[in-house]
Structures are given as structure tokens and as C-alpha cells.
């Protein structure tokens, strides 16, 4: 009889201890749940911001590259037209000089045409210098494009690291699964 009473007391103590232990584990589970939810929320928002920033930068670089290619094409066309104009001015100057030789009253016009030819040659030199500068800018845009691709690669690495952290948080919360399924903690 005394043994049954002692056995009932022992069972009561063990039951009370397990009840306390279960309550404490449920408290740990609630805290871990809150931490996991906040961590996932923060990770998702951060990744969203990174994705939007990358898309914006990539779009801007693409636009700049397209505009630079168009501008270089226009500068090349302009240079060719100035070259043709310079050639035409050379022929025109020669014709006017010939007229000046044949007509005594026209030497002033021939001199003005020579000056105009020199001015056009100077303009052609300036356009050539501008084309060299635009070519240099095109090289810089290519460097920016390469840097953007490298940055995209680094974003992929960051995304992988964040996914790994998410998995680690899930792994750390696994011991709390001993007291019931916690499907909400499964990694996405």
C-alpha cells in the first residue's frame, strides 16, 4: 500500500515535471517562431529591394549603351558628310580660283572661298577629335557594362548566402520539432 502511494507520488512528480518541461518548450517554440518569421520577412524584403535596384541599374546601363551606339553612328555620318563637304569646297575653291584667273574682277571671291575651305578643314579636324572622344566614352560604357555584369554575379552570390542563412535558421529550429510539426518553418 505504501508502495502504491509512493508510486502515485512519483508518477505525479514526473507528470508535473513533464508538464513544466512541455510549457517551457512551448515558450521556446513561440520565441523561435517569432524570430524565424521576422528573419524571413527581413530576408524577403532585402532581396526584393536588391532585385529592384539591380533591375533599375541594368535598365539604365542598357539605355546608356544604346544611346551611345546611336550617337557614335550619328557622329560617324556627320564626319563623312564634313569630309565630302570639305572635298566639295576644295573643288569649288579650285573652280573659283580658275574663274579669278580668267576674270580680273573676281580675286576677292577666290580669297573668301579659300578662307571658307580652311574653316571647313578646321571643322573636320574638330569633328575627328569629337569622334575620338566618343570612342573613348564607348570604351568607358563597355567597362560600366562589365562592372554591371560583375555586380549581377555578386548579387547572385549574396542571394545564395541569404538562402543558406535561411536554411541555417531552419536547421537551428529543428530541435523544437520534437514536440510537434512546425511546417511554417520549412525553407521556401
Question: Secondary structure elements and their pairing?
Answer:
Blueprint: H1 2-102, H2 107-172
Q: Number of helix segments?
A: 2
The whole-angstrom Rg is 41 Å
Poorly predicted regions are none
Helix content: over 70%
Main features:
mainly alpha; Helix Hairpins; 2 helices
Can you walk me through this structure?
- The protein is mainly α.
- The protein has one domain (2-177): Helix Hairpins (Orthogonal Bundle).
- Helix content is 89%, strand content 0%.
- The protein contains 2 helices and no strands.
- It has helices spanning 2-102, 107-172.
Question: In summary, what is this structure?
Answer:
The chain is mainly α and 188 residues long.
Amino acid at each position: 500500500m505504501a508502495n502504491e502511494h509512493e508510486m502515485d507520488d512519483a508518477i505525479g512528480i514526473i507528470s508535473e515535471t513533464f508538464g513544466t518541461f512541455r510549457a517551457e518548450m512551448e515558450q521556446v517554440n513561440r520565441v523561435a517562431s517569432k524570430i524565424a518569421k521576422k528573419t524571413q520577412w527581413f530576408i524577403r524584403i532585402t532581396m526584393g529591394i536588391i532585385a529592384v535596384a539591380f533591375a533599375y541599374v541594368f535598365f539604365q546601363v542598357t539605355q546608356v549603351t544604346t544611346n551611345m551606339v546611336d550617337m557614335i553612328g550619328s557622329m560617324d555620318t556627320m564626319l563623312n558628310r564634313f569630309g565630302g563637304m570639305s572635298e566639295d569646297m576644295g573643288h569649288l575653291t579650285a573652280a573659283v580660283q580658275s574663274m579669278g584667273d580668267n576674270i580680273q574682277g573676281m580675286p576677292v571671291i577666290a580669297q573668301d572661298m579659300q578662307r571658307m575651305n580652311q574653316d571647313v578643314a578646321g571643322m573636320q579636324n574638330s569633328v575627328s577629335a569629337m569622334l575620338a572622344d566618343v570612342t573613348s566614352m564607348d570604351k568607358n560604357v563597355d567597362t560600366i557594362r562589365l562592372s554591371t555584369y560583375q555586380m549581377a554575379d555578386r548579387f547572385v552570390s549574396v542571394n545564395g548566402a541569404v538562402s543558406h542563412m535561411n536554411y541555417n535558421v531552419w536547421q537551428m529550429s529543428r530541435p523544437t520539432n520534437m514536440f510537434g510539426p512546425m511546417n511554417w518553418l520549412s525553407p521556401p
